[in-house]
Amino acid sequence: MHEGLSARQGTDGSDRSGTFPSGFLWGASSAGHQIEGGNVASDFWEMEHAPGSVFAEPSGDACDGYHRWREDVGLLAGLGLNAYRFSVEWSRVEPEEGRFSRAAIDHYRRVVEGCHERGVTPVVTLQHITVPRWFRRSGWWTGPAAADRFARFTEAVLPVVSEGVGHVCTINEPNFAAMLEYDLDPARAARATPGAEGGPAVPGPATTEALVIAHRRAVEVLRSVPGLACGWTVCAVDHQPVDGAEEVAAAWARPRQDVFLEAAKGDDFVGVQVYTRELIGPHGPLPVPEGAETTQIGWEYYPEAVAGAVRNAAKITGGTPILVTENGVATADDSRRAEYITRALRALKGAMDEGVDVRGYFHWSLLDNFEWLLGYRPTFGLVSVDRTTFERTVKPSARAYGAIAGTGRLPES
């Protein structure tokens, strides 16, 4: 022990006692299309109802979150959490190109104000996977003037974020969105660039560049609001090389996530969204280890992945501040969710003690909600939702997480 340092304080002066810094954001996340319901002007609504749809089921009424947001923010606040990440649904705000809904903009402004009334800090995402039908039909992110259109939308929603919002995420998981296109469009998948060893495709350079340009255009617009922190969120996996496969792991990760992290250099923050690890051998990704616990969607149950993901983000961005904007587990056993949260936060605190600049943690998700192609089967939520009555029920894992957030301190191991 160094002279002048307590037994729980690091040589860099960091607090290694399991206590998080004051001002740390303790939150949960949601997304418009996944909870609001009735998002009829969006591209996903159209695809969900198309003949031969690849979706397990349509989103339908979802969690009726568009009308029940007050209850949801109240539940979050009642758990002792101090931040709520939600998204503005572009297709509600601009259902037809160039025609903006004043009512929708006012609605999202009321959500911001409602958060403050309940002592909750709002974190707003401008685009969370879905886009208006007209935007997809006009070529999606690689279409003509896509960045101009996104910048115009950003300008339209400035009234939502111009007061009382500290952080705005421009585009949610651009890397996941680009990969999801292959699941939604087999013809596009056939034209995709193969990955290492002929494995799964990677986002094409044109798509990647288009998303980066759109993000930067949105940041330019948001910079007009004094004090507003701007960034985007990246879908991250803790890539762990085995058998000396460090170079293979780096080559695998670069087009899938690291190039999107590099684009966050110079931003006010970057959102890291991580759920599991992926072992990388000399020839690419390896199967989940035999006998390992897996989640409802087949991922390895590995809470410590969050630490590897934020360390990598800090390295790639050169120290851009980090928000863990999504982290969670799909499981029907809520005791495993409570365990996951505690272990993930313990690992995250370890990375912070090493000097990684993490400013907040948001669990995915606040509610059991629509999980894209998989429908409502996977349950990530801290709160369950009755699919018929929309009744919300707080799970024990939510209270366990709230107890940590309320004190800012991890339980003794």
UniProtKB/TrEMBL annotation:
Organism domain of life: Bacteria
SUPFAM superfamilies listed in its UniProt record: (Trans)glycosidases
EC nos: 3.2.1.-
Xref: Gene3D superfamilies: Glycosidases (3.20.20.80)
Database matches in Pfam families: Glyco_hydro_1 (PF00232)
PROSITE patterns: GLYCOSYL_HYDROL_F1_2
Alphabetical UniProt keywords: Glycosidase, Hydrolase
GO molecular function: hydrolase activity, acting on glycosyl bonds
Family the UniProt entry places it in: Belongs to the glycosyl hydrolase 1 family.
PANTHER family attached to this UniProt entry: GLYCOSYL HYDROLASE, LP05116P
Protein name per UniProt: Glycoside hydrolase family 1 protein
Organism: Sphaerisporangium dianthi
